[in-house]
Amino acid sequence: MILWADYDSRRASVVDGRSRVDTLDCNRYTRAAERCWFTIDASCLTWEGQQFQGKRAIVEKLSSLPFTKIAHSITAQDHQPTPDCCILSMVVGQLKADDDPIMGFHQSFILKNINDAWVCTNDMFRLALHNFG
Amino acid sequence: MADERPDWQKIGEEFIQLYYSRFDTGNRSSLGELYYQSAWMTWEGEMFHGKEVIVNKLTTLPFKTIQHNITKQDCQPTPDNCIVVMVMGQLKADNDPVMGFQQVFQLRNELGSWGCSNDMFRLSIHNFGA
What we know:
Radius of gyration of chain B: 15 Å
CATH class of chain B: Alpha Beta
Number of strands of chain A: 6
Largest sheet of chain B: 6 strands, mixed
Order of helices and strands of chain A: HHEEHEEEE
Strand order of the largest sheet of chain B: 2-1-6-5-4-3
Shape of chain A: globular
Number of strands of chain B: 6
Largest sheet of chain A: 6 strands, mixed
Radius of gyration of chain A: 14 Å
CATH class of chain A: Alpha Beta
Oligomer: heterodimer
Order of helices and strands of chain B: HEEHEEEE
Structural class of chain A: alpha+beta
Helix content of chain A: 25-40%
Number of helices of chain B: 2
Strand content of chain B: over 45%
CATH architecture of chain A: Roll
Largest interface: A-B, 34 and 35 residues
CATH topology of chain A: Nuclear Transport Factor 2, Chain: A
Shape of chain B: globular
Strand order of the largest sheet of chain A: 2-1-6-5-4-3
Number of domains of chain A: 1
Number of helices of chain A: 3
Distance between the termini of chain B: 48 Å
């Protein structure tokens, strides 16, 4: 489980944001297992416009994505504190799934501290490949 | 036919429509009305805190005309009764080539009206290797 002790420090959240993203760079099984720790039953995932709510539905979606290997490369990441003491993160990067061509992606997260653990309550993912005429 | 979109989606989409129409009509100082006094904006990695600072940044961006086109927008409710909106699209500033962009907003309700507390913007131009 990931525990981010110092959420008052933006620097810490940046570092932790990176390590969290890095934990997603593994095979789909590990990836889904990792995500169990980060989501709660109220969490929302929007994956290419399709909505999933709750840890079970989110993990089921992530673990059934149709590739066996994936590698993410983060181009840029931004983090901000929100008025409710959450952290809003935006990631721009590239990914390579199996033997598919490299694709750009955009992803946003809201992280919330619940009982001294940071959990992901909101997650939105889009491939960037439709964004270029 | 009844509009079956959830409220958070309607509010998110209305905000996006309002935000970019104000941005594109050239009156960027009016964008200040959409931000909370203590709002944050991250513009291409640079952070701005407070409505006046944000408006100053937006009104001094180095182009005269701009047009945004929204490719996709996603909205979600948050546990704190806010709304998070992620936008991807393309923009054309003056005579520059069309560029992709990504922007995320968090909207919150205070005293019955919605405003932006968080805004993050990135051009996508650096996201594609040769």
